[in-house]
Amino acid sequence: MEFSNRFLALGDSFTEGMGDVDVARPNQVRGWADRVAEQLCADPGWGYANLAIRGKKTGQVVSQQLSPALELKPTLATLYMGANDILRPRIDIDTLMVGYRKMALALADTGATLLLFTGFDTGGSGIFSSTRGRTAIYNEAVREIADEAGATVADYWRWREFQDWRYWSSDRLHMNSAGHTLMASKVLEVLEHQTRIKVPELPAEAQVSRSQKLREDAAWAKEHLMPWVKRRLTGTSSGDDLSARFPHYVSLEAAQNP
């Protein structure tokens, strides 16, 4: 099927949809990009492809996704990458952004509308707060590249709603369904596209005692942090055996459950 408007989503777990579980979909996730696509595809002529795969670092996104992205000739492209690099023990942001700039400019040169994301402010996220300075430097580089490429910026860093941890999944790394829904609504606003997405009401904030919080932190470390650290040490990724969810354009219908 030929589409006159083509939305292409690129990057890592953020764009793949991790945290927004949907067992009926490829890789068993839905995510903000699917939700945006459902809205766009409600209008005639829109197609959607998503090449993002969890765990990918910037160099991998560039080497594995740029060439197929150019072949897909998008009219709208979104790009988020770099978080998996920033979380490493050592990182040279300047070198990291050389690859980022290469990919952003190549996408912009296609004539597509390009949307880039700043990184999330981890200042209130406990163990990951140490990466806050790195992310701030990364964000300034993203904004400079956006200016050069004529791209639009989705400023995740400044969207303070996401500081509410009720928008996050149990792994504390990815947004949950409510978070992905809010992100989809934000992205459509940035794109100046009328949104019919209804962001769900959050559950009441639970009152947790100090002892209970310690137990929850210990359970989280065992279930999520230790496997994550092990993958870092062994050079493996949760996305090593996965393929792109939508490698070719599809017309994505809205899910029955919002």
TrEMBL record:
Q: CDD domains, alphabetically?
A: SGNH_hydrolase_like_1 (cd01832)
Gene3D superfamilies assigned: SGNH hydrolase
Task: State one molecular function term (GO).
Answer: hydrolase activity
Tell me the domain of life: Bacteria
Residues covered by the SGNH hydrolase-type esterase domain: 9-181
Indicate whether Cell division appears among the record's keywords. Answer: no
User: Which keywords describe this protein according to UniProt?
Assistant: Hydrolase
The protein depicted here goes by the name: SGNH/GDSL hydrolase family protein
Native source species: Paeniglutamicibacter antarcticus
